[in-house]
Design goal:
InterPro entries: MbnB/TglH/ChrH (IPR007801), Xyl_isomerase-like_sf (IPR036237). Pfam families: MbnB_TglH_ChrH. It contains 10 helices and 12 strands. It has 291 residues and is of the alpha/beta class. The protein has a single domain, classed as Divalent-metal-dependent TIM barrel enzymes (TIM Barrel), CATH 3.20.20.150. Strands 1-2-3-4-7-8-9-12 form an 8-stranded parallel barrel, surrounded by 4 helices. A two-stranded antiparallel ribbon has the order 5-6. A two-stranded antiparallel ribbon has the order 10-11. Helix 1 links the parallel strand 1 and strand 2. 39% of the residues are buried.
């Protein structure tokens, strides 16, 4: 079992996802962001342009590796080839943090290429405990696990998702990547209270926060990462800052990619909200005295 370390954190400040549409921007200058996050699997090759760009960016900015293909909750054996490629990328890039999703995505028939929701049961918790321990031991480091957006819940669930994550973190020493937009999506789709969900997580277990846009349809709210962060999600982020402190935060945008300036504007909004929620230094006020 990995020694518990609930304070595994992404680099301080506000980051954005490094996506192909903005490679040229990053190669020509260092944008005013504190760090970048990439999908690990896009950089598993031994060479190529993507890895060249990542290595170049890494000279100036910290990197967070965010996996989308491991499917930790699947019942199939852990993909050792996948883990080997991830470990090799970690050795090459020396990321500040490595994260995965609380999901499954494979059967004996093959990989489904989806972040499918876990049944939140004792049996699933025990299954994931073994798998997370195995991954962390193989990688030689704790990982962060992200709550996912879902469009179904299981009638046999015994936990709320964040309570499930909190218990998994307690057992394995992993941390939590809190996706605030996913909490909002699940609140809208399942009539769940996102604030109550956040309050189930111990303050020191959250090592990174994701913010993203979503799409509202007649059927459901879809987590599509294709627009600006919605006002309701900013409001939840404010609660997250008050509960967890200035946790490193990522602006996540994957579809309908805008110019980089739009993402930088979202970065500034996150910085402004952090400043607004920062506790006032009452000692400094007392030192200044009255005039």
């Amino acid at each position: 079992m990995t020694v518990p370390d609930a304070r595994v954190r992404a680099p301080a400040g506000i980051g954005i996802g490094l996506r192909h549409a903005h490679y040229a921007d990053f190669l020509h200058t260092v944008p005013p962001v504190d760090w970048v996050e990439v999908h690990s699997e896009n950089y598993f090759a031994d060479g190529g342009y993507d890895l060249h760009v990542l290595r170049t960016v890494r000279r100036d900015l910290p990197v967070s590796l965010h996996g989308v293909g491991l499917g930790l909750g699947s019942m199939t054996p852990l993909d050792r080839a996948h883990l080997g490629k991830l470990r090799r990328l970690i050795d090459r890039i020396e990321p500040a943090v490595v994260s995965e999703h609380l999901c499954w995505g494979a059967t004996s028939a093959g990989h489904l290429n989806e972040l499918l929701p876990m049944p939140l049961t004792d049996a699933a918790l025990e299954h994931l405990q073994v798998r997370v321990d195995e991954v962390q031991t193989f990688l030689g480091r704790p990982v962060l696990l992200e709550n996912v957006s879902t469009y179904v819940r299981f009638v046999d669930d015994q936990y709320q998702e964040t309570a499930f994550l909190a218990e998994l973190a307690r057992r394995t020493g992993c941390g939590v990547l809190l996706d605030v937009n996913n909490l909002y999506v699940n609140q809208a789709n399942h009539d769940e209270d996102a604030v109550v969900a956040m309050n189930r997580l111990p303050p020191d277990v959250v090592g990174e926060i994701h913010l993203a846009g979503h799409c509202v349809t007649d059927v459901a709210v879809i987590d599509d990462h294709g627009s600006r962060v919605a006002p309701a999600v900013w409001a939840l982020y404010e609660h997250a800052l008050r509960r967890f402190g200035e946790v490193p935060t990522l602006i996540e945008w994957d579809t309908n990619m805008p110019p980089l300036d739009v993402l930088l504007d979202e970065v500034q909004s996150a910085r402004d909200l952090q400043a607004q929620t920062r506790p006032r230094d009452t000692n400094a006020q007392h030192r200044g005295g009255s005039k």
